[in-house]
Design goal:
By secondary structure, the chain is mainly beta. It has two helices and 13 strands. It is about 5% helix and about 25% strand. The longest helix has 5 residues.
């Protein structure tokens, strides 16, 4: 898992970078920040059928609310800003805040899961540094370009049933899933495609969130 990144993409129909980058259609543009799993390349092996959890805060949340115990999560998103604010730095491995494209949006260190999209990618080229991001057709709205060929998976969540609100182009995600509200105690779960004889679970992945998740 070393080096895998997760970021929130901009709406491809609204933000245009074609005058800044040749072949802009070959990229997806991250709009807020990128979190990256640390490691030198072999520190966090993931065997076929295994999984890992990235938590915003890897603590037992069930002690204070009717929610999940995330104290067993392997990774968490936390940076100095939140440590200084009093958030406990749990035992999970800290993700790297690799890019902060929009510093003012860091009020929630792992973004929102309603009306938002996510891409998981393994960068084949070094990521741009802060201050080097590309400006879109909207003044003072910047993006970090990521080759679509580097994307491992992508999911699109909407608050509406309007396909015009999709953020991801169809070649990354042909569908979307409606997620009603922040704090609505909803979970998005990928469907199981099959269970092999040795017990390994194979998850469904057709690059269509409408079909692959419930």
């Amino acid at each position: 898992a070393d080096g895998i990144c997760i970021g929130d993409p901009l709406n491809y129909k609204i933000f245009d970078f074609s005058d800044k980058l040749p072949n802009a259609e070959d990229y997806v543009f991250i709009g807020t920040y990128v979190w990256q799993i640390p490691g030198s390349g072999t520190d966090y092996p993931i065997a076929p059928g295994e999984s890992f959890i990235i938590a915003a805060s890897a603590i037992d949340h069930s002690k204070t609310a009717e929610t999940l115990d995330l104290s067993g999560a392997e990774f968490e998103t936390i940076c100095d800003k939140y440590k200084e604010g009093g958030q406990a730095d749990a035992a999970a491995v800290n993700m790297i805040l690799a890019c902060t494209i929009k510093e003012t949006a860091l009020g929630n260190q792992f973004g929102k899961f309603t009306d938002g999209a996510w891409v998981i990618f393994y960068p084949s080229v070094p990521l741009r540094h802060d201050g080097e991001y590309l400006e879109s057709n909207y003044a003072n709205n910047y993006g970090l370009e990521v080759l679509k060929a580097d994307v491992l998976d992508a999911v699109d969540f909407l608050k509406t049933e309007n396909p015009d609100d999709k953020r991801l182009s169809g070649d990354l995600d042909a569908g979307w899933l409606k997620c009603n509200t922040t704090g609505g105690n909803q979970s998005v779960v990928r469907k199981i495609q099959e269970t092999l004889e040795d017990g390994r679970i194979v998850l469904q992945d057709t690059n269509n969130t409408s079909e692959d998740f419930t």
